[in-house]
Amino acid sequence: MFSLPELPYSYNALEPYIDEQTMRIHHTKHHQAYIDKLNAALEDKTDLASKSIEDLLTNISSLPDDVQTAVSNNGGGHYNHSLFWQLMGPGQSGTPTGKISDALITAFGDFTNFQAKFTEAAVGRFGSGWAWLVDKNGKLEITSTPNQDCPISSGQRPILGLDVWEHAYYLKYQNRRPEYIDAWWNIVNWQEVEKRLPA
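Above: the chain's sequence. Below: its structure in token form.
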């Protein structure tokens, strides 16, 4: 059975960029709900309940028909959020250095261009979903997915992800998604992002 991972920081640690109430509700209510629904879907399927979330999401088409949607929606929600919490942190500089900086320059020309393209993907995602920096066959690309669809389900490795569901920002930013995205850049934990680069 899957369980809610602890945040690597306190609920108010990302203030003023993401407020404490949003973090608390997002983590304890939204993320927990994905886990509860995923566990319920797998309850009678002992062979599946022992698999990792990565195994489930990378082989959705091989799962029984009656759990595919639940794994895609709720398993994706669990995986995506577990990654999202890790990729943020207090006291960040706002700009990457080291290997991740070099990789972004190689792939996108410079950080400013990468940031603009990623922001465009996040702002332009219609409805609920995510913006992603992924490794696709050894190449860094920017993409976005609807709902809780997860890049690993389509053979991509997520390096950086941003939740643009309204529940991620509405208490503080209401309908101002671009403002939330601008604020989020200040709390990206680039050291954690760098750990996800392909070797």
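Residues 98-195 form a domain with the minor pseudopilin epsh fold fold (CATH 3.55.40.20).
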